[in-house]
Amino acid sequence: MPTLFDRTLLPEALGEFVLISDTHYALAGGVGMDEFPSRAQQSQRAGAALRLVAALEPDFVVHMGDMVQEYPESAGFVPALDQALAQMATCGVQPHWVAGNHDLGDKPDPTMPTHPVTAEGLDAYHRRFGPSWYSFDCHDLHLVILNSQILNTGLPAEEEQRTWLEADLAAHAQMRIAVFLHLPPYLHNPDEPHLGHYDNIGEPARTWLLKLLAAHQVAWLFAAHVHFSFCKLAGTLYYRTVPSTSFARPGLSHLFSSAPPPEQGRNDQPKLGFFLCRLRHNRLDIHLIRTAGAQDWGSSPQRLLIPATADLGGAPLGLTATHPLGWETEVPITFPSVVRQPVRNDYPLLACLELGAQALRCPWTDLDQSGDRLRFLRSQGVQVQATMLDDGTTPYESILESHRDQVDTWEIQTPGEPWPSSSCLYLFKSYHRNLRLSLAPVIPGQQIAGKQHPRTRIGYRPDEVAQLDRLLQNADTWIEAALCRLDATAPWEDALAWREVSALTTMGRLDLLFELPGQSDQDDAGRAAEALFATALLPRARLFVEPFIDLDRTMDVGQGLLDPLCNPRPVFGVLRCLNALLQRFRVPFAEATSVEGDGATARLLRGPTRTLALLLPAVAGAAVPSAWEIAGLARLYRLADGTVEEIQADQLPEIALDQPSLAIVEN
User: Fold this and answer.
1) CB neighbours (10 Å) of residue 207?
2) What does the pLDDT look like over 560-619, one tens digit per residue?
3) What are the beta bridge partners of residue 383?
4) Domains and CATH numbers, the chain
5) Which residues, 6 or more positions from 301, have their beta carbon under 8 angstroms from its beta carbon?
6) Could you give the CA distance from residue 644 to residue 614 in angstroms, rounded to a whole number?
7) Is 142 helix (H, G, I), strand (E, B) or coil?
8) 93 to 25, 85, 147, 288: CA distances (angstroms)
9) Model's pTM, two decimal places?
10) Of 494, 499, 539, which is closest to residue 514 (Cα–Cα)?
11) Alpha carbon separation from 267 to 25, 80, 249 (Å, rounded)
12) Contact predicate 27/39, CB 8 Å
């Protein structure tokens, strides 16, 4: 099997396994193949995903159900199973099986589109695949596979599974436990309706199961079925749904403020993929491997595997939550459900983790409105920086005390002028030894070409920071950070200016706020890469990027890291890869230089042991600038694609650049 992945950034793990689901092998000529054009591509998409799974060489694979598009009792069901199993064998994947509704039958609800599980169908499944509930161990992790399709059926097998599960969990109380089943217990909350709801477990089995998992302190619960990503931290239980490799679910795209994805939301390819799970001593790292509907991988360069957020401590990237962290809606009454389905958009939350962002700026009111979302992020290693406007009457003490355990840094914003009020200075003096405090000005009156009204600037400029330092000295106080504005049109040059700011005695670091230009994917990717790379020039600095999601119906329109469907734009991949690379290969006390070429620019950080060269093409196909002296073996990272290849440094000028790239050469 060819090596399709680069693992050089990953820390050691106790073990690895893959969760793949809803591959939906589609029988050629099957009923309904013309209903959606992408249905004819499902088998090829499944094959491409399975080849990636095999290339990862995990310790084992769990298939979370719905192996085929056919369903029990359809004429093509058995032939489809035969072909799907043959495809898996050809790809070198022999998974542990979780029974899904397309494998066994729907839940026992008279509104469901197909028949529920029968005793005969269950026997046939067991003869072919073995028991549909069982458990096994991986190091100190106990994995429990359940059959969600027999719950509430009244079949003898339901009681057998129930008795077995209660005994199995009790027998493994000293181990970490993860539970896997096809049908989610719920999508939005444990009290949501179940009759007429296609996507959750009915009562009374749902309540029994959730109480049992809580009683035995189960750590992880994975479900599938919905072809969509949801997540929740319910007490100490980490609950997550596994995406499909073949298609997304129409109807659920009502969560997004945009036109629907292709095929009524079904062909939302960026949401397709599977999980690589890496067992660590104190946690389970979940890496989304995006397949994006690809049907073949060809001879592409190796894909770079990025460490989990918790392993990127000290990385410079942060985000501003310009949008709510997880807005909610109800899916309209439409097939395959006959009730409205309450759902929440968890894609921004999960994208924050995939990105490797180390901090999130958000209004302090989110601590009440989205407290569970922020708790989820903090449990995964993301720090919360809560912003608060100082209006002179803000009840700081009560707010800070009541939310002390929810926040890592408090950002106090001074409206109208750069200087903190006397009450704000008193706050700093009273709390700076107990809380991390940051300061940011909110200054109106910034003239923008082509705009009728002036705009508001958030963040200091270099001349203001020096004066702020003197003011804080006179007040005999100290702050963790000052938030500074980075010029989006010239981030490299502006960062060099910040580097020249004289030594500051009253603030721990300077953080930078960077607003994406928002005019094109190419421009955003290049400017953001330059801004993050330039942040490496400042000790301990963070770069907060905004907007996170497109602003497409506001006074100022701009592109974000995610489009309105919450799918990544190229700038997302650029920042994700560069953030991890800077965390690993950051060059302290680097000499910063630039080289201009014909259609491309190179920004260089030279240190005693290595040189980092950020390569920025102005046009696709531009050559790497050649006016530099670097020799040796280079690793070339194409940041938007997240790929890496090795090349001799003197051959770099022969490379045609189509995206921001990073070359690393050990001196």
Assistant:
1) 13
2) 999 999 999 999 999 999 999 999 998 777 889 999 988 999 999 998 889 999 999 999
3) 359
4) 5-296 (3.60.21.10), 328-585 (3.20.20.70), 591-666 (2.60.40)
5) 638, 641, 643, 644, 645
6) 14
7) strand
8) 15, 9, 21, 18
9) 0.96
10) 494
11) 16, 22, 8
12) no
